[in-house]
Here is the input.
Amino acid sequence: MSVLNLGIDAGNYRAKTAGPYGVDSYRTAICSWFKRNIEEDFGEDDMEFEYNGRKGFAGTLASYEDMFGESGMYGDNKAHDDTVIRVLLAIYRYTQKYCPGFLRFNIIVGQPIATHKPSEKKKLIDMLVGPHKIIVNRKTFHYTIEQVKVVAEGTGAFFASPKSGRIHIIDIGSGTVNLATLTDAKHINQSSGTFNYGVETTGGRDNVDNLARAVIQSTTKLRWREEEPIYVCGGVTEEVIPVLSERYKNVQPIIPQLNSHNGMQIHLPTFANAIGFYELARQLYE
Ligand SMILES: Nc1ncnc2c1ncn2[C@@H]1O[C@H](COP(=O)(O)OP(=O)(O)OP(=O)(O)O)[C@@H](O)[C@H]1O
Ligand SMILES: [Mg+2]
Here is the structure.
């Protein structure tokens, strides 16, 4: 069997995966293993896993346990163990759903713009590359990640729907906001950045208007101009666009276009990074 190319956006709220068959996503909460007296179903993404001596639950089930305060790392660095588990579970779900049998992978993953530095990228690549053994729902899987590239979140979303000229991308996540500027597909460092707040750290989905106003403040620090085109992605895209439009004249969602085996697929803006990463993977690895 050949090598499967995947784009994996292992977000702190949900992982989004894109590949040649379509997309997948699951809730990325992780909690320690405990004896379940009642085996209740919380979601189709409930998973029991064991990796490197660490045993736990992931998915919606784990998100309920998280409420009693375990992990929930809404931070701006993804070079940590949880990212490896999230990526392996993304691979598990994707292959189970679309293409069981694939065991070797070339992937592109994301890192917030702020921590998108050579040393942090190397750390993440070293953690991901190579053979991995993971047990999911009591079945053992041996996966090999052959090649990994790390791309900046927000900037990577561009490749899900490329545009020419100078444009901005706003990627609002659970714990971070990535603000990217590109000119003809080139990342412009001085007008891009990561801000350390997001939906889950500012009062949740019910409070997105205030969050969107904070994002406007952050964009003015980067000297974005009101007439420049702005493309929005992330889990609250639809909710924030009306507020962002109070300041910016040309705000639109990113409509990700996935080149699948069966032709072009259109997906929700939340998949923009994953699909952008996959597009880059296709170009890089094929
Ligand atoms: N399926 C969903 N149902 C309900 N709310 C959602 C869903 N997906 C996303 N959200 C909301 O949108 C927010 C942002 O989600 P998103 O997937 O963009 O975050 P993330 O990429 O996981 O986080 P980060 O980029 O900070 O690592 C979440 O915090 C949540 O409030
Ligand atoms: Mg995100």
Notes: The chain has six helices and 17 strands. The first strand starts at residue 3 and ends at 10. Residues 11, 153, 171, 173, 234 surround magnesium ion (ligand 2) (CB under 6 Å). The chain has a mean pLDDT of 94.
